[in-house]
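Notebook B, p. 112. Complex prediction, attempt 2.
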Amino acid sequence: MGTRVAVNQVLRLAVRNATISTLCPRQFGRYYRQSRWCCSSTNQATQHNQDLNPPSGIPVTELSLRSFIDMGFTESQAEQIYESLANVRRGDSAKHILPTLTALFVLGLNPSSVKKCLEKCPELYTTKEAQLQQRISNLRKMGLVEGSLQRVVAHYPRILTVPLKRVKNVVMFLKEKCLFTSQQVTDIIRDCPAVVLENLDQLEYKFQYVYFRMGVKQAEMVKCRLFRYSLDEVRCRHTFLERRGLYETPDKKGQTTIINPNLDSILNVDQDTFLAHVAQASAEEYDVFKRLAAREWQEEELQQGRTEPDSDDEDDDEDVDDDDDREAKSGYEKRRKK
Amino acid sequence: MALLWDTSLLLRKVKDLRCLTPRRHRVKEKWAATRPKLPPTRLAVHHFDATYSTQLGQLWPSVRLAMLSERKYGALLNNFSHNAVLAELKAQGCVDFISEREREVPSCLEEKSEEPSDVSMKSSDVDGEQLSLSPNIKCLVFPRGDVTRFKPARPDKNSLLGYYLMDAASLLPCLALDVQEGHSVLDLCAAPGGKTLALLQTQAIRFLCINDSSVSRTLRLRKVLHSYVPKQLLTNENLRITSFDGTKWGEIESNTFDRVLVDVPCTTDRHSLMEDDNNIFSKSRTGERRRLPQLQLELLLAGIQAACPGGEILYSTCTLSQNQNLSVVEQAIYQAREKDGIHLQVVDLRPLTRMFGNTFHFAPDLHLGEMVIPHLAANFGPIYMCKLKRLT
């Protein structure tokens, strides 16, 4: 018993030391095998402990609180992981969890980061280790070197649950349709990893809106982290400025009669700064505008979905007064996008 | 020999290559024969940007934003129809902006109110000292910042519609006209009929003359009146609908009417920015647009001549442009004095801005008349109005 405790402590120390310095996979594998040996021996002794037995009858040898603690988690962290794992209904999740955790440690994340990843993205529990390795190596091939890679995974662990094909599709789309360079694509994935899960049509519309309507080129899009923002946010702020006369779409030669505010000052500021310095408008106006614009765009989408064109009322006037005696609906529908 | 011939031919061909000739020697074969084709709404926006940015200054971006966004309507209640429209709309949150106007307490009465005497102040008296309005007009609007839309009006059991949707600011000229019991009123450019309908709602007019220069628009006006007003009130004893040229009215009927409403054709700023159809900024209508101030002046002069001495004339447009608003009124006052010997007094409409300042945004510091400017939270207007009283 005493020796077992001592061995555990040694292993724990070893693991902790190992994670602080750069980890050598082979070394860790040895520690891992040794911890497994320890686990199996301790488990036999503690099998009478009902609380630790998982309800679904998974072989206990691979799972126990001890094994998590040995990997470097604190007791409370290990308990939480164990509980959430028990909640995952799939039968084979138990087999995957240790290799998955191993892979995450190999990546260079410390135990608390790993735990945060698992919390943010419970799907990681059910991801196969082979897929995980594939996806990580794909990210490496794209140019996400050490440092960036860890940061991306720590901030957005979901990227590891996205199928390889999807990530490749998005990358191909960005390179071929949007004409970003490879370096720019890497920067996009690094700064805005959620882009891999976005609908490609939406992505294309957003890109085209910013490229053509706002006249912003690829380099600036990447620098201002455009893909972090949703289409509605971008559209709302831009249309607000455009209708106030503060933003002009460049003509075919790329010229404008006024100086457009740059994309950074439009998107990367909070609403109050945007209203005070860029738009010079009141919060009330922007609030009403958001509601009006949301309704406009919704109706536009509905109209585009319809196959037959809208029928306008016959207009035999020479001049239409401010009074509008048409029915309300068609009066409201008389709108042109500016 | 053949070789020499070939090279000379080759050289001649080379000289024709455009990329090899320096730019200064190139001949441009085709020059643009026309201006770029921009839709009339774009032309309107450029025109307004040029004129109104200096005129309105810091206010212009907000006005521009409001005019390019969806407008806000008001529901003019039809006093002749009987259905539960008022209750329904109030349940949705609408408010009658006319009855909810600010009532001002003049300073002399404030001192008296400290004493425990019962000073019954009827709000109509208070207004009467400053500005009296046409009675019985009711119009519901959604509160400030609320962008809910009105549903189309439904006919009641007499097939009259419950309310008429129009720009609430368009009612201000009708209110300012101050139609009193037994007046005869002339509406010189009446179509499509919103203001005419409002005037009929007062039920105070002895005889209403309705005119519009266009026959087709007069027909539309008739349809509107038939949908809202019961037939017994549309007889020849109560009103007359004509399609004469309004500028000739001074020759037809002069010194006749107690009240004249001159709602002239103008560049209809809001419509010009949003609709390409019937847009006065289209290239084919440039001449018409340039002649507008002259036409407006003639119409106002005709209206002045048609009014009786002591009568009041109200000039209104739906544009922000100075040379269709103030300039026209100033010119008319001058010409009426010089040519016809008619002396006019400008009636101060500032009380109107105080009364309705909680519903509309008014342009500050206009030295003649008042103007409602669009703002996104109160997206009514633009409306300009100026009231003149005929002294002789």
